[in-house]
């Protein structure tokens, strides 16, 4: 309505309501974020939109920006692939395995090339081993002790 060029990446998911019915929803891929294309001087009209808290800042007081090619890739790729939000994981971060043979165990992410490699430690015998897992099987640990 305000003539601000914007893009809200969505993903499709199915949910089951408490009455047993199933519904398909389109939800934001990056909750709390919407991509806009403006000049820095146009930020005030954006900040006047109800619900907008801030424009994400980059370096030197300039707004953070994504290359147009990344936005184009999101636009075309989301229609072709089944995407879902995923917690940010970094090498060196502690993470817990959510499913599979090692579900519930936690370790340190040491590699993320083709799949995630997580080093798990058996404290009782002071030995470690590494396992390869899919990203969907991991959740980041924030201040939680390893098991």
Secondary structure layout plus pairing:
Layout: E1 5-7, E2 10-16, E3 22-28, E4 35-37, H1 43-47, H2 68-80, E5 94-97, E6 106-111, E7 116-122, E8 127-133, E9 138-140
Antiparallel strand pairs: 1-4, 2-3, 5-6, 5-9, 6-7, 7-8
Structure overview:
The protein is mainly β and 147 residues long. The chain has two domains: 5-80, no CATH class; 94-140. It has helices spanning 43-47, 68-80, and strands spanning 5-7, 10-16, 22-28, 35-37, 94-97, 106-111, 116-122, 127-133, 138-140. Strands 8-7-6-5-9 form a five-stranded antiparallel sheet, with no helix packed on it. A two-stranded antiparallel ribbon has the order 1-4. The longest helix has 13 residues, at 68-80. The radius of gyration is 20 Å and the shape is extended. The model has no long low-confidence stretch (mean pLDDT 82).
Gist of the model:
With 147 residues, this protein is mainly beta. It has two domains: 5-80, no CATH class; 94-140.
Sheet with most strands: strand arrangement: 8-7-6-5-9
Shape verdict: extended
Largest sheet: 5 strands, antiparallel
Number of strands: 9
Distance linking N and C termini? 52 Å
SS summary, helix count: 2
Give the strand content.
Answer: 25-35%
The SSE string, one letter per element, is EEEEHHEEEEE
Kindly give the count of domains: 2
Unreliably modeled segments = none
Average of per-residue pLDDT values: 82
């Amino acid at each position: 309505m305000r003539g601000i060029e914007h893009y809200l990446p969505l993903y499709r998911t199915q949910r089951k309501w408490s009455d047993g019915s199933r519904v398909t929803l389109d939800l934001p891929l990056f909750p709390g974020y919407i991509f806009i294309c403006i000049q820095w001087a146009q930020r005030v009209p954006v900040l006047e939109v109800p619900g907008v808290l801030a424009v994400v800042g980059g370096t030197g007081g300039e707004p953070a920006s994504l290359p147009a090619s990344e936005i184009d890739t999101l636009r075309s790729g989301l229609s072709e692939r089944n995407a879902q939000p995923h917690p940010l994981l970094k090498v060196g971060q502690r993470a817990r395995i959510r499913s599979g043979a090692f579900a519930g165990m936690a370790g340190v992410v040491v590699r993320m090339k083709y799949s995630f490699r997580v080093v798990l430690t058996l404290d009782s015998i002071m030995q470690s081993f590494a396992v390869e897992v899919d990203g969907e099987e991991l959740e980041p640990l924030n201040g939680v002790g390893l098991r």
